[in-house]
Specification:
- This protein is of the alpha+beta class.
- The protein contains 10 helices and 10 strands.
- Helix 2 runs parallel beside helix 4.
- The longest helix has 16 residues.
- The N terminus is likely disordered.
Amino acid sequence: MKRNLLAALVVLGCAFPGAVRSEDEPVETQIVDAMNKLFGMHPGYRANHAKGIVTEGSFRASPEAAALSRAALFDGSTIPVTVRFSNSTGIPNLPDGSEPANPHGMAIKFHLPDGSDTDMVINALKFFPVSSGADFRDLLLALAASPPDAAKPTKFDQFVASHPTVPAAFATATTPDSLADEEYYGVDAFVFINEAGERQAVRYQMLPERAVHLDAADAAKQAPDFLMEELPERLKRGPVTFHLKAQLAGSGDSTKDPTQPWPADRKVVELGVLTIDKAVANSAEAQKALLFLPGQLTDGIEPSDDPLIDVRDGAYAVSFSRRNP
């Protein structure tokens, strides 16, 4: 189980940290430090989502999106996008088919007509294993303190015993046959505001034309870089499309606890089509300069009361500054 659980440490996608700091540091810094302790130091790379590939394309919203939000990216025009796909963990040479590479991440930067950007950071987990930044830090530290020869029950065993959402969340992700054939979810809730001022809490879903997953045995047989190499080759043959959707919160659905998925019968609205048409030529260099912030929003989209949105923003900023001193 531990190997599967380690695979799920993808969502907060931090970057190259320094030495582990004291407990009086902000929790965002402690998270970055804990990732470095768990995954090791790899200068120039993110401490999580270290291995990735950058692509470009466009987004075109549906009429239903404009009815939900007045945001510029939903006005029906063609919006250029930069998209980074990634593996889990902070290990840059981790084989794509290994269990710790799951769940995979997708970060989208929408380049708006006024010159600003708004970001979306999603991943293949259907919900998050813990509900706060402090718990996420403690999960990372528990894993780091639980090597194979650790006495039982390990620190990790003890953490899972008091956090049953951890194994439940980690069980929702497996290896895809392509980064283009994976489903990506937004574990945090955001609030849409339309032209009439009406407010609706949503969680994002980014769904491929088809989802294809490999069993663990077949995934382990793949070449070490099969996902990172397959996507550029596929794009040479034609574009890849995803459908961006919003699951709408119902009465009583929690918007502040990312460990709690909303009921499957909640309405899902198509927001538009994301089209990816090329891989960036020098992806390894391009991704070093990219910073994706879940809380970098635009008029018509606001954060919910989910505390992880601010924590993720803070951790990403710490990470970026370390990767680009």
